[in-house]
Amino acid sequence: MSKGFEQPVMMKIDKIISESEDAKSFMFRHNIDYKPGQFIMVWLPGIDEKPFAVSYSGDDFFGITVLERGKSTKHMHGMGVGEQLGIRGPFGHGFSIPDSIKDGSANACIIGGGCGMASLSVLIESLQDNNPTILTGATTKITLLFKNRYKDITIFTDDGSEGTKGYPTDVLEDLHKENNYNIIYTCGPEIMMSKVYEFCKRHNIQCEASLERYMKCGIGICGQCVCDGQMVCKDGPVFDSQALDNMSDFGSYSLLKSGKKVSLKEYGDWRSC
Question: What is the pTM assigned to this prediction?
């Protein structure tokens, strides 16, 4: 398909890749008009419809990476090649790639945490020839995503089971002194992203962060994913430094399905059920 779909189109699963202990990628033999950072809505008839980042993209295929958590994702993990899912989209505002990054005259850093790497993966591949700094973190080695997919990736784990013990944000000061970054892209736990944003603000570096909120419609109508007046599905999910400056909930609060504002920890606990 060369353009997005407003209504779900049933597509067969062409291939399934086991990415980690609790993550699988589902590949579809279709072309998609996609910009890094956008998302699609995936419909499971009779169950639910959920948003997913496009984690693989080529001339005649695309893929999504699914972390097994709730009812919908558990059902998807039980599906096989040849079964069908409904695809709607792509939607949202993706990452920007300035000409200076494309031609290599400026430096980029890409920071992913956990399943946030899925939102960054196509961006990373589009910038591979420009040698961006790539940092990824996870709780432990068995939950790392795409650790062998890219060259020159630096790995961090909370428990030190692979790579460096700690967090990607621990080394930003030293890396910036070496590389003088012009832009930092990030997706992952919001606490991590807020630290990246604050670092960028202190050093006058452009930051682009891909936010996650509970989504229902994907097109800015239902209001479920609002964050300080911004619809994450429509105005985002990628927001730049200037937008983040005006989003006081970023790094602190999110909304449950009921619309109740809660801490990011409570929201994360609810999303993991």
Answer: 0.94
Tens of pLDDT, residue by residue, the chain (273 residues): 335 678 899 999 999 999 999 999 999 999 888 999 999 999 999 999 999 999 999 999 999 999 998 899 999 999 999 999 999 999 999 999 999 998 889 999 999 999 999 999 999 999 988 899 999 999 999 999 998 898 889 999 999 999 999 999 999 999 999 999 999 999 999 999 999 999 999 999 999 999 999 998 999 999 999 999 999 999 999 999 999 999 999 999 899 988 899 999 899 888 875
Domains by residue range for the chain, with CATH? 5-91 (2.40.30.10), 99-210 (3.40.50.80), 212-237+251-273 (no CATH)
Torsion angle of C-alpha atoms 198, 245, 218, 102, degrees rounded to 10: -70
